[in-house]
Amino acid sequence: MDGKRTENAIKDRGKRWIRLALPALLLVAGIGFIYHVIRSKEGHPFKNPLIVLAVIDIFLLVTLFYLLFRQLIKGYLQWRRVKEGARIRTRLLTAFVLLGLIPSTLLLISAVLMIESAVDKWFTLPVHTVNEAGQRLVDASLDLLRTGSARRADSVAKQLEAVPEDLQPSFVSHIVKGGDIDAVWLFGSDGATIKEWPSGVMQVDAFKKRKCFSEDGLRGYIVLGDKSYVLSGSRVGSSRAVIVGYLLPEKMLTEARFIAENQKLYLQAKAERQFFKISMVSSFLALTLAVIFAAVWIGMKLTREISKPLQLLLEGTEEVSRGNLDLAIPYEAKDEIGTVVSSFNKMVDDLKESKREIVKSNQELREASEAAERRRHYIETLVESLNVGIVSIGRDGELLTANNRAREFLGLSKKDLPAKIVTLPVWQVIKDSLRDLSRHPEGRKEVTISQREETRVLIASLVPISDAEGEVSRSILILEDVTDLSRTQRIAAWQEVARRLAHEIKNPLTPIRLSAQRIRKKAREGAEDLHEAILEGTTTIEKEVESMMLMVNEFSRFARLPEVKLRWGSLSELVLTSAAPYQNAYPKVRFSFDLPEAFPQVMFDHEQLERVVKNLFENSIEAMKMAGEIQVSLSMTDKWACVSIRDTGPGIPHEIREKMFLPYFSTKKKGMGLGMAIVARILEEHGGRIEVDGSYAGGAGMTIFLPR
Amino acid sequence: MRRSLAILLLVAAFTVQAKGPKVGKISCGFDNLHLFVTFSLSDGFLSQDVLDAINSTKPTTFTYEVEVAKKRTGWFDKTIGRRVVEKTVTYDNLTRQYDLVTAVDGEEKEKISLISVEEVEESLKGMTALDMGSVVDLSPGERAYYIRVRVTLLKNFVLWIIPSDEDTGWTEKELKTP
C-alpha cells in the first residue's frame, strides 16, 4: 500500500503543478497586461493607478472564479464518484467560502454606498455656489482690466496710425511716459519688434502678435509671471501692430490667485469625483477580493488539512474492510484527529494480531478437525468392521445410521436408507426392544430375529448419548449376535443341568439302591430284621423320592418363568403384602419398615416381584433360625427405586457373594440353588438388578434396584 | 429569443458608435517626397463631457493617431508609418485662458494660449498638413496603401473599472502613391 500511496502522491503532485500552471499563466498575463497598460497610458499619471487597480480587480476576480469554479467542478465530480472525504470537503469548503464571502460582500456594499454618499456631500450646492461666486468676482475684476486694456490698445493704435511710421517708436515712448500704460510693444507684420518699452519686461510670443493682426485683435490676454500683465493689441495700419500691457495689481492678483486656486481644486476634485469613487471602490473591491481570496485559500488549506486525515482514514477503513491489515496511516498530529488516526492504527494492529491468532486457531482447528476426521474415519471403519451391530437412534426413535453388521442383522442392504427399516417386519421387534431398553437404559435384552429362514439371537443394549445440555439427543443400539454363544450356552447349561440332575438324581439313587439291596439281602437271608430293614429301606426310598420330586418341581419352576408384565404399582404395598404372612407365621421374627408415604409408583410385575421379596424374606428367616429382625426400607436415586432388606442373621460371606446368583449354587443342605438365580433373572427381566449390601455389617443385606 | 437579443445588442452597439465623433474628410498630398495628411473632426466633437473635462482645469489630452498602412490578403495589414500627435489643453481658471501644448511623437512642438472655447475647438478640430515623413519606401502606383486616422477624445471606464476610451474609431482613406 505504501508503494501505491507513493505513486499516487507523485501523480497528485504532478496534477497540482498542472493545476497551478493555469493561475500562474493568468498571473503572468495579468502582470504583462498591467505593464502594457501603464506603458501605453504614460502621461496620464492619475488614471494609471486606477487602471492598475482595475487590472488587479479583474485578475483577482478571474483567479477567484477559477478557484471556485475548479473546486465546484472537482467537488461535484468527487461527490458523484462518492470519493472518500469528498462530501465533508465540499461542505467545509463551502462553509469557509461563505464565511469569507458573505461578510466581505456586505462590507463592500456598505463601503460603496458610504463612498457614494460621502463623496457626493463634498460637492453640495452651497459649496458650489460659494466657489462660483468667488470665481465670478475674480472674473469681474479681471474683466475690467481686460476691457480697459483693450480700449486703450485701440486708442493707442488709432493715435499711432496718425503718426508717420518713422516717428511711431518715439511716439510710443511719449504715450507711455505720459499715461497709464505699463508696457508697450510695437512690431511689424513679420513679428519683429520695432519698439519695446520698458525693454526686457517679457517676450510676446508669435501667436499673440498674429492675433493682433486678426479682425478682433488681441483682447485682454493675461500673462502671469514675476510681473503679471493684461495684454491687448490692435493693428496699426496694415503693417504694424501695437500691444499695450497693464500690470496687474499685486494684492488683487494674490487674492484672485487664491480664489482661483481654490476654485481650481474644487473643479478638479469635482471632475475627479467619479474617478475618486471608482478608485475607492476599486480599492475596496481589491481588498474584498483579497480577503475572499485569502478566505478561499485558507479554507482550501484547512479543508485539505481536515479532510486529508479523514480521507486517509476512509481509505484505511476501506482497505481494512477488504481485509488488508498491513497498513498504517502516515499521519501524525497532536490534535484530536491525530488521536483518532493513532487509535485507528492501534486498532488495525490489534485486528492484525487478532487475525493472526484466528489464523493460528483456525490452523489448529483445521488440524484438530482433520485429526477428528481421521479419528471419525477410524471409528467409522472400526464400527463398520465390528462384529456387533451399531445402530444410531434419533430422539424420536427413528433409525439414523447402521453399520454393516447391523444392516446385516436388520436385513438392510448397503444402498438402503436407514429409514427403510420401518417397512420391514423386523422393525417391530426392534421397536419393542427399544421401548423396553429405554425404560431400563442399562439393561440388556435378548432379541430373536428371523429373516429368510434364519434365526439370530441378538443381545441388544442401548447407550443414551446426551448433548451439551445433558439432554438425551440420540441413542446407540448395540446388537450383539449371540446366536452361536446362546446355542453353546444352552448346550453348556443343559449339560450342567444334566450333570446336576445326574448328580442330584444319583445322590438319592444311591441310598435307594442301597436300601433296595439291603432289603433284598435281608429277604434272601431271611433275616430277622427284614421287617425293620424294609421299613427303613422304604422310608429312605420314600424320602429320596420326595427329594427328587422337590428337585423336579424346582427345576420346573425355573424353566417355566413367565414373561414379566409391567404395570405401575406401589412398592410399599408390595412389601407390606409380601411380609404379612411371615409376620403371622414367625412371631419371633420382627419386621420393621421404613416406607416413605410419598414414594412414587414404579412399573413392575406384581406377582413376580412379590416372589422375589418373599424369597428374600424366607432366606433371612431361615438364616436367623426363625428369630431376629428384618428391616425393610425404600429409597430413591436418579434412576432407581431401591428396596433394601436387612436381617440380623449371620450375613453372607464375601467368597460366595459373586456366586450366589448363579443357578444351582446353594449353601443349604436342601435346595437346588435356583432361588437366588430366579430372583436375579426376574429382576433382570425388569431391567433392574440385585446386589449384596456391602455396607451393612449387622447381618445379610440385599438391595433390589428397579428402574424408575 | 437569444438571436433577437444578440441582434438588439449589435444594433445598439452600432448606434452608440454612430453617435460619437467621427473623423471627417481625410486628404493627403505629396511635397518634396514627403506625405502630408490633413483631416478634421466632424462638428460637435467638443461634447459637453469633453468641455467639462477641459473646464475642470485638469490637462485634457486629445490623441491623434495617423498611420500609413498596406493591406495584406489573409493577414493583418502592415503599418508602414505612424504619427501620434497629442494636444493637451489646460484651462486656467484665473486667466480664463486655455493653454494648448502640441507634441508630435512625444516631442513638444508648440505651446499657445487661447482665450475662447471657439479658439480651442478650432485648434483641436483637426490637423493640417501633418508631415508623415518620406515616401521613398512606398511603391509607386501601388493601390494597397491607405491612411487611417483615429482620434481619442476622452478617457473613460466601463463599469467603473474597465478602461474604455472615447474615440472616433479608425477612419481610412486610400492612398494613391505618385
Count all strands of chain B and give the number.
Answer: 12
The biggest chain-chain interface is:
A-B, 39 and 23 residues
Mean pLDDT value of chain A: 81
Backbone CA Rg of chain B: 18 Å
Unreliable stretches of chain A (pLDDT < 50, length at least 5) are: 42-46
Strand content of chain A: 15-25%
Considering DSSP H and I runs of 4 or more, what fraction of the residues of chain B is helical? 10-25%
Based on secondary structure, the structural category of chain A is alpha+beta
Structure description:
The complex is a heterodimer of chains A (708) and B (178). By secondary structure, chain A is of the alpha+beta class. Helix content of chain A is 60%, strand content 16%. Chain A has helices at 2-40, 47-81, 86-122, 125-161, 168-178, 206-212, 250-271, 273-321, 336-385, 404-410, 426-439, 483-525, 530-559, 571-585, 606-623, 675-685, and strands at 183-188, 193-197, 218-223, 229-236, 240-247, 389-393, 399-402, 444-451, 454-466, 472-481, 567-569, 589-594, 602-604, 628-636, 640-647, 689-692, 701-707. In chain A, a hairpin with a 5-residue loop joins strand 9 and strand 10. Chain A is rod-shaped. Residues 42-46 of chain A have low confidence and may be disordered. By secondary structure, chain B is of the alpha+beta class. Helices cover 19% and strands 49% of the residues of chain B. Chain B has 3 helices and 12 strands, in the order αββαββββαββββββ. Chain B has helices at residues 2-19, 48-55, 117-124, and strands spanning 23-31, 34-41, 60-70, 78-92, 97-104, 107-114, 126-134, 145-154, 157-158, 162-163, 166-167, 171-174. In chain B, a hairpin with a 4-residue loop joins strand 4 (78-92) and strand 5 (97-104). The N and C termini of chain B lie far apart (53 Å). Classes of the chains: A alpha+beta (708), B alpha+beta (178). The interface between A and B is medium-sized, with 39 and 23 residues.
